[in-house]
Amino acid sequence: MTQKEKEELRNLPSNSPRLLNQTQLAAALGVTMAFTSAMKKWGCPFPGGRILIKDALAWLKANPEFRPYKERKSPTGPHGIPDIGYGIVPENYNSYVVDNVSAVASRDAQRAAQQVLRTDAIPASVSAGAALHAAAQLLANCNSRAALAIFSGRTSIV
After folding, report:
1. Most exposed residue of 13, 79, 84, 93, measured as fewest CB within 10 angstroms of its CB?
2. Predicted confidence (pLDDT) per residue in 16-39, tens digit
3. How far apart are CA 83 and CA 69, in angstroms?
4. What span, in angstroms and rounded, lies between the C-alpha atoms of 145 and 133?
């Protein structure tokens, strides 16, 4: 889908008679494909694989308990680090304050968690180790003299 098509879909009125597939609906609502896929899994009807914007909005309004990124009790990405990873977005996430996202290998996250236990006697989860390792990478790779690691609920953000 081109940028022009996405912009066209974003500008569709909510009462548009145009039937949209999941990709088009994601563009029209300004959300990810994972969001519209989760809508479908949660029971949003897509008869013939298509839906009207007004029907999707009505379904979202009728299902306030819908949480697209919290379908499992303890989500784990393909990397084995619990509660952190692509597609896992904390409820209090504010993209305005995030200026860097780092990838951390499972082994590095485990080492960082073990190191903070050994050096500071603070037990840390693997996801906290991932945040600490990412903060250390940030400090090592840029001119910054400080890094802030935020631990929010069960998800670690750097």
Report:
1. 13
2. 899 999 889 988 888 888 888 888
3. 11
4. 15
